[in-house]
Design goal:
The complex is a heterodimer of chains A (115) and B (923). In chain A, β2 and β3 form a beta hairpin. Chain A has five helices and three strands, in the order ααβααββα. With 115 residues, chain A is of the alpha+beta class. In chain A, strands 1-3-2 form a three-stranded antiparallel beta sheet. Chain B is of the alpha+beta class. Chain B has 28 helices and 26 strands. Helix content of chain B is 52%, strand content 14%. At the A-B interface, α3 and α4 of A face α2 and α4 of B.
Chain lengths: 115, 923
């Protein structure tokens, strides 16, 4: 299955949030970089468009899970970099646990290994 | 590259958030599109294709709605309190680092601002530390607020006149009787009203030393709640039988300095006159009695009064009033109850003193006498009368200087604000809240304030000492602890905080209240420059006004000082030296034998080479005796309104030595002895007032009711002079030969010399020692210095007010310079256009100077009004000068205007050098 555009339902389930949070683990990134990184790690299977990425970013920021800051470097564009807050870090590990439990259950229940 | 910002702005529906946040979202989305566009180009797409790729299939409406929902939600704050605090600290540290970096980028500005503020804060702290030490600080005793003096305790000395009105001097028997009958105080204590300088030998040594002894009641330490750090303090039993307890308690500092802080000091002796006192204890550190500004070395029981001071024997005399009393209020007794009971007992005892048949006048006096219970928490000090007004005035002056300095720093910050306008506009457009930016600006101001307070307190430390030395008379140094303590530091911190609010507040408010769009577009805040300039001008006008007030004050004080130093004193103060002897310390009694000895000394010293004459005198221009309307002349009705007469007992050569010209009759000589007729030389005013008709020579008058004061014949009239201070109104005066009044010690020896006093004084000491080697000689001073001491206070005020006046004017000029320079920098192209259109340099100069002049004139007009309004405040500190002296005000106005024009002229000259072509190109 190729997911050219992450659909609304999935996003609402929170997997999009998990994906964004995961990209910010260990370093801060700006919005475009987050999208590119997701695409790279999923080998092009998952890609975000503007209309899907930024609402997620702003919601996470609003919830205090990530924080954005404008950074200006000589010779470069001013960019807004996002990083995990302590609460975001906690949320990331909690979501990872519940998603792997859910994926395991899905594999067993739906016999996905054999598909 | 296509303008994606414009594209996003066009397509994205309104988000319902503030402009700054919306701009941020637009910028971020546009950035994303830019990146994608560039990637498409890198992937080989043509620009049109890339544009299509990036912009196709966008559901802007949905995105807008979604973002509106998200951004409209209240921000989620799941962060626990502890880390919120941590975040605040983190932000603060970030602000601090930012501020430090920012200030270190412009060291010139930082240095000037810190110096100006440090000067202001330091001067305020220095004056306050003096004010605090002299007027406000509580005594280091237990519960000082419970202590009350009887009366206002402002005068020192002794009196035997009947109390009338508010009473503050009491006799020893009264103290004992009052203590016995008192019901409202838990303790009552008595101290001699004045500190007694005495000569002594310490621990059996040979050298005679001068120390300060304070006679106190046995209840003194108990009443204060002060205990000894070594040995014991005085107790009631030490103060019962006259002359029976020659013991002393040493002050901590004297014990440290003179006895090396050695515990074996207990039991050591101090010999004063013919009595030997044993040291029984040491008072705690920091305690120096209840007299602020003076520090006794020894406390001795009052019962030793006659032994310490042999020419006064007042311990048993109901009417010899030489004591100040203070008492501790009993718990639960109100001040009103205490005052009522005190007055009741006071009058009862006075009634008993006047005997069974009092005169109606005595009864009336008693009826109209009372005791004002005065809070004693801050101790007593007669310095206060002299210094509190000048210190308060100086405090006001330095507060103005600080205000001016603040205005200057505010102005500097405003000028820099223009340069920062874009930085701040960007930060605010990026969503930084106004409060956040204000906080950042305040952290910068606070950092300036911190640097200033450090420097200022260090400056105050030195300045307070310098001030103390400036106002403290040479003869009697003012002993005050002026090192900054908690209160003084608290004051400095409070002043600095206010300062930071003032100089940091206005610019911060102004800078953040900007219209973002034009600031961002133009790159500099043109719109707010106008308001900034208005605020700067207001500040400069205020500075000029306050400076004019200070300059006027300085001028008035200088003029007052000039008048005072030119006062006709009526004697020749030059080439006269005054020495003090202490006959009591050498074991002498005030009698004819001592008079003979004094005559020998006068003759011996008078015949030394380089000496023109020598004479003893009861007082030499620094106090002495005076009568209270009790000079009587036969045939002249007595009157309450008779002027007070200055009385002095002197040697035969006194008038010659002092250079007081004799106008009529003769001076004293060998004819005037104890057995001959009592004679006097009077001054012109005495002759005119008391002996108006005919020649005063041969006329008779009497002083008081003692036998030695009756039927005195006038043998000469001397020219009027000043006797106690430079500012006194002309007093009547009478001089008597001390040989005819041997009942009192006469301490002063005045000597007129030629040549170098450094050489003459050892000769005089030698001459005295040849007559009596035991006679202590001390306090050698030139008469000219003693006279100048009276102007010392006023000189200090004049010097300090001139200093602060000039500093203020200088600061105002810096302010003008800054505002004019800034204005010119902004109007460079305007000047360029003017000059291109044919204006010559003079036109341009005039345009700038006109602006300066308008600021200066507005300032001096307000300052003039302020100076006139505040003239009453300084009237009491001026000597023969009208506080609205037109000459002084005109000079101050002229000086301020000239300085202001100069400050404006320097930058204005720059404007005339503008190259029209360059100025126009720069636009």
């Amino acid at each position: 299955m190729s997911l050219q555009e992450f659909d609304d339902n999935a996003r609402k389930k929170g997997s999009a949030e998990l994906l964004v949070l995961a990209q910010l683990e260990g370093r801060s990134r700006h919005g475009y970089e987050i999208g590119v990184e997701i695409e790279r790690r999923s080998a092009g299977a998952v890609s975000f468009q503007i209309a899907s990425l930024y609402p997620v970013l702003y919601r996470l920021e609003r919830k205090g899970l990530i924080s954005g800051q404008w950074v200006e470097a000589p010779g470069q564009r001013r960019r807004r970099y996002y990083k995990l807050t302590p609460a975001g870090r906690k949320m990331l590990s909690a979501q990872r646990r519940s998603w792997s439990a859910f994926v395991n259950a899905l594999q067993r229940a739906a016999g996905l290994e054999h598909a | 590259m296509p303008d994606f910002r414009a594209y996003v702005r066009q397509n994205l529906p309104s988000l319902g958030v503030d402009g700054a946040r919306a701009a941020e979202v637009v910028e971020e989305l546009a950035l994303e599109l830019e990146e994608r566009y560039e990637r498409a180009l890198r992937n080989g797409l043509a620009p049109e294709q890339a544009w299509l790729e990036v912009t196709q299939n966008r559901s802007w409406q949905n995105l807008g709605e979604e973002l509106r929902t998200i951004l409209g939600e209240p921000p989620h704050e799941p962060v626990p309190a502890a880390s919120a605090l941590g975040r605040l600290a983190e932000e603060f540290l970030r602000d601090l680092r930012h501020a430090a970096r920012y200030l270190s980028k412009s060291p010139g500005f930082t240095l000037v601002a810190v110096l100006m503020l440090a000067l202001g804060i330091g001067a305020n702290t220095a004056i306050f530390s003096l004010l605090h030490a002299l007027l406000l600080r509580n005594l280091p005793v237990s519960h000082p607020e419970q202590l009350f003096f009887f009366g206002k305790v402002q005068s020192e000395g002794t009196t035997s006149f009947m109390p009338h009105g508010s009473t503050e001097a009491f006799s020893y028997p009264f103290f004992r009787e009052f203590s016995r009958r008192n019901q409202v105080f838990s303790n009552v204590a008595a101290i001699q009203s004045y500190l007694l300088p005495v000569h002594c030998r310490v621990a059996g040594g040979r050298d005679i030393e001068k120390i300060n002894a304070e006679l106190v009641s046995g209840s003194y330490f108990r009443t204060l709640g002060v205990n000894a750090v070594l040995g014991r303090v005085l107790a009631d039993g030490d103060d019962e039988a006259p002359g029976a307890h020659p013991i002393a308690v040493a002050s901590y500092s004297w014990w440290q300095d003179r006895l090396a802080g050695n515990p074996s000091a207990l039991g050591k002796t101090v010999t004063i006159g013919s009595s030997v006192y044993t040291i029984v204890g040491v008072a705690p550190p920091g305690f120096s009695g209840v007299t602020v500004g003076k520090s006794p070395n020894l406390w001795i029981p009052l019962a030793m009064q006659h032994q310490i001071d042999p020419d006064e024997n007042g311990i048993a005399d109901n009417n010899f009033r030489f004591l100040h009393l203070f008492a501790r209020l009993k718990p639960g007794v109100t001040l009103k109850q205490a005052a009522a009971n005190t007055d009741l007992v006071f009058r009862q005892i006075l009634r008993e003193y006047v005997g069974p048949e009092p005169s109606p006048r005595q009864l009336a006096n008693i009826e109209h006498s009372w005791i004002d219970l005065t809070p004693a928490a801050t101790g007593r000090s007669n310095w206060r009368i002299e210094f509190s007004e000048p210190l308060k005035l100086l405090m006001a002056m330095v507060a103005l200087v600080l205000l001016i300095a603040c205005a200057n720093v505010a102005n500097l910050l405003l000028a820099r604000a223009a340069a920062r306008q874009r930085e701040i506009a960007v930060r605010m457009s990026l969503g930084a809240e106004r409060g956040r930016v204000i906080r950042q600006l305040f952290v910068e101001s606070g950092l300036l304030g911190c640097a200033s307070i450090l420097l200022g307190v260090a400056f105050a430390w030195g300045a307070a000492r310098l001030l103390l030395a400036m106002v403290s008379p040479g003869s009697e140094p003012l002993v005050l602890r002026v090192t900054p303590d908690a209160t003084v530091l608290g004051f400095a911190i409070a002043v600095t905080a206010l300062t930071v609010l003032f100089f940091g507040g206005a610019p911060a408010w102004r800078m953040t209240g900007i219209d973002l769009a034009p600031s961002l577009r133009a790159g500099r805040g043109l719109t707010s420059a106008i308001t900034r300039n208005r605020l700067s001008r207001v500040l400069v006008v205020g500075q000029v006004a306050l400076s004019l007030v200070l300059l006027t004050g300085a001028g008035l004080f200088l003029r007052s000082l000039a008048k005072l130093t030119n006062v006709e004193v009526g004697f020749d103060k030059h080439n006269v030296v005054r020495l003090m002897i202490d006959p009591g310390a050498a074991g002498h009694q005030p009698d004819a034998h001592l008079s003979a000895l004094m005559q020998k000394i006068e003759e011996r010293v008078g015949h030394l080479s380089g000496i023109r004459g020598a004479s003893f005198a009861l007082s030499v221009f620094d106090g002495g005796g005076w009568s209270e309307n009790d000079v009587t002349v036969p045939g002249r009705p007595g009157s309450e309104r008779n002027p007070v007469v200055a009385l002095n007992a002197v040697g035969p050569q006194y008038l010659d030595v002092m250079g007081m010209p004799l106008l009529l009759g003769r001076g004293f000589d060998d004819r005037d002895s104890l057995s001959s007729r009592k004679v006097a030389v009077i001054n012109e005013t005495m002759a005119r007032t008391y002996l108006p008709a005919g020649t005063p020579l041969g006329r008779i008058f009497s002083v008081g009711d003692q036998p030695e004061g009756q039927d005195i014949e006038v043998i000469g009239v001397v020219k009027d002079a000043k006797y106690m201070s430079l500012e006194e109104r002309q007093m009547p005066a009478a001089f008597f030969p001390y040989a005819q009044h041997s009942g009192h010690f006469v301490y002063n020896l005045v000597v007129r010399y030629t040549g170098d006093p450094a050489y003459v004084v050892p000769e005089i000491r030698q001459g005295i020692a040849e007559i009596d080697p035991n006679l202590p000689v001390s306090d050698v001073r030139k008469l000219a210095d003693m006279v100048d001491d009276f102007a010392r206070n006023r000189r200090a005020i004049a010097q300090l007010s001139s200093f602060f006046g000039i500093v203020a004017a200088l600061l105002a000029c810096i302010g003008i310079y800054g505002v004019v320079s800034y204005g010119i920098a902004r109007r460079t192209n305007e000047f360029g256009i003017r000059m291109a259109l044919g204006a010559d340099r003079w036109n341009v100069l005039w345009v700038v100077l006109r602006e300066t002049l308008s600021l200066a004139i507005a300032g001096v007009a307000i300052g003039f009004a302020l100076a006139l309004a505040s003239r009453r405040l300084i009237q009491s500190l001026l000597f023969q000068v009208n506080p609205a002296d037109p000459l002084v005000i005109a000079a101050a106005l002229a000086a301020m205007l000239a300085a202001a024009v100069l400050a404006g002229y320097l930058p204005a000259r720059r404007a005339t050098r503008v190259d029209p072509a360059a100025a126009l190109r720069s636009e």
